[in-house]
Amino acid sequence: MDDKLNVDVIISAYTQGFFPMADWDGIYWHSPDPRAIIPLSGTPKKPRSLTQFEKKHNFSFTINNDFKYVVQKCSERKDTWISDEIIESYSELNQIGLAHSIETWADGKIVGGLYGVCIGAAFFGESMFNVVDNAAKSAFYFLIDILHKNDFILLD
């Protein structure tokens, strides 16, 4: 697998079960075994307590409203695998409609979210972040609902 990131290399990698990760030494290709596959044949039920939490905090959601911001926030962990090169490459994927973000909003600010890659009827979740408790989890359930409504087969 080529270690130079570009859209074609990333798409090819995903179709073979790999995705890029970065460390101090550069980019490497990862393929987890086992994979965390969520079949979307039925809609996973959102916990009632999460729905109540969302109402209490007046959460709302957007799609691709600020993709680069979401990826940047996901990269701010102490031990991140999301490098500047990955941020730029996934931003290119977003521009051509293959990478997407879900933003969770409260009080006019993005308080959580997630991003991933869509190929065919599969969505590959990459990372999520919270500024407010449960904001990423809420984005996750919002994503599952969208994927289910659009006949996706799986979430990886």
CATH superfamily: Leucyl/phenylalanyl-tRNA-protein transferase, C-terminal domain
Mean pLDDT, rounded to whole units? 92
Architecture, CATH level 2?
3-Layer(aba) Sandwich
Outline: globular
Strand order of the largest sheet: 3-8-7-6-5-4
CATH class: Alpha Beta
**Span of the ends, CA to CA:** 21 Å
Number of domains: 1
Structural class determined from secondary elements: alpha+beta
Please give the radius of gyration in angstroms. Answer: 15 Å
Tell me roughly what share of residues is in helical segments. 25-40%
Number of helices: 5
| Percent in strands | 25-35%
CATH structural fold name: Aminopeptidase
- Outline the low-pLDDT stretches: none
Main sheet overview: 6 strands, mixed
Walk me through what this model shows.
By secondary structure, this protein is α+β, with helices and mostly antiparallel strands. The chain contains 5 helices and 8 strands; from the N terminus they run αβββαβααβββαβ. Strands 3-8-7-6-5-4 form a 6-stranded mixed beta sheet, sandwiched between helices. A two-stranded antiparallel sheet has the order 1-2. The protein is globular and about 45 Å long.
What descriptors fit this protein?
Aminopeptidase, 34% helix, 156 residues, 6-stranded mixed beta sheet, single chain
Write the layout of secondary structure elements.
Blueprint: H1 7-15, E1 19-23, E2 26-30, E3 38-39, H2 48-56, E4 60-63, H3 67-74, H4 84-95, E5 99-106, E6 109-119, E7 122-130, H5 135-149, E8 154-155
Parallel strand pairs: 7-8
Antiparallel strand pairs: 1-2, 3-8, 4-5, 5-6, 6-7
Helix pairs in contact: 3-4
